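request received
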Amino acid sequence: MNFFSTKKKLGILGGGQLGKMILFTTRKWDIQTHVMDPNKNAPARLACDNFKVGDLMNYESVFNFGSEMDVLTIEIENVNIKALFALEKKGVKIFPQPSILKIIQNKSKQKNFYSINKIPTANFRTFSDLETLKNSIAKGNLSYPFVWKSSMMGYDGFGVSIVKTNKDLETLNNCECITEDLVPIKSELSVIIARRTNGEVKVYPVVEMKFNSTSNQVEYVICPAQISKKIKSKAEDLARVVSEKLQHIGILAVEMFLTETDEVIINEVAPRPHNSGHITIESSYTSQFEQHIRSILDLPLGSTEIKIPAVMVNLVGKEGFYGSVAYKNIDQILVIDGVNPHIYGKKQTRPNRKMGHVTIVNKNLNEALKTAEQVKSIIEVISK
Ligand code: ADP
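response:
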C-alpha cells in the first residue's frame, strides 16, 4: 500500500510515547498520520499531521475518527472494540485486527487462547468477581500463594498482585479476574515478532527484562539476552508459534518467563510496539516502530539483526515528586559515550510514571550494563 507522500491517511488510537515513537517513521517517510488521545497534551500531539482529542473507549469518537482513515492502528489495547468491528465492516483496514485485540484486551480470554492452542503458560483460573474468588479459597479450591490479575485494563503491573495471605486479599479490586500459579522465575524474556499480510515474518533477538520488585515495572532491558543458545531458540520458537496461531498483522511483543527449571512459558502478548523493543531504535537495523509501520502497510519487513549490543533504562517519576517535571542531571549523562536519552514530553510527573528512557549502546554488553547503572544513579525525574 503506497502511503509515501500521498493523501492516504494512517490513524493511531492513542498518543502516548509509543505513538510518538511511531511518528519518527511516519515523519521520515512522509506518511500522513492522524492521532487521537483523550489528553490534549499527549506526547504524540506534536509530530502528527492532525491531532484529535477523544475518548478511546467511546464508540462514537473511535468510529468517527476511524471513518476518515485508510489504515488504523493502536498504541494501547484499551480502545472501543465494537467501533473497530464496525469500521472493519466499512472497509477500514485495522491492524492489529479487532478480533485479536478482543482476545488480548481481556486476560482471561488471552489465557484461554493459550490453553486452546496448547501454548505453555502458567496454570490459571478465571473468576467473575472477588466474592467468587473468596468462596473458592473458603472451599479449599484455591490456596496461597497465587498471582491475581484483573481481566481488563491492566497496564504496567497496575492490575497485578501477588497474594500470600487473607490480608493481601482485602487489597484487591472487585472485578473479573484471573489467578495464576506463582511461577518461580529465573528471568523474564521478550521477543518481538512482525508479520505482514503476505505471511512474511521477522523475529527480533531475545531480550531480557529486569523488573523493579516494588513497582513491577521494567527497570532494564538487555539486548541480546544473556542466555544459552538452547533457551534462545526455545523463546524464538514460542514467539513464532504464538504469532502463527494469532495471525496478527503488525508487531507482536511476546513476554515470557524463563523458569527455575529452564522452561520457557508465555506471560502475555501485546500486539503493538512495546517497552522491551525501544532498544531497537539504536541497537537494530530496523526499529520496532518502523517495523510496525512496514507490517501494517504491507511493505517488505526490515532486518532485525543487532547493530550493537545495548541496555535500556526506563526513566520513571521519582517517589515523592508530583507536578511539573524536571530532568535533574541530564547534562551529566549526555557526556557519557553511547548514552541516548528519550524524553516523552509528558508535562506532569508522578511516582513511577514512565517519563522517558535511556538506551546505552556499547560494543561490549558488560560495559553497557555498567553505564546503565551509572545513568540510573545520576539522572532523576523530579518536579520543579
Ligand atoms: P501487566 O499486564 O500489567 O504488564 P503482567 O501480567 O505482565 O502485568 O505482570 C507483571 C509482572 O508481574 C510480570 O512481569 C512478573 O514479574 C510478575 N508476574 C506476573 N505473572 C506472574 C506469575 N504467574 N508468577 C510470578 N510472577 C508473575
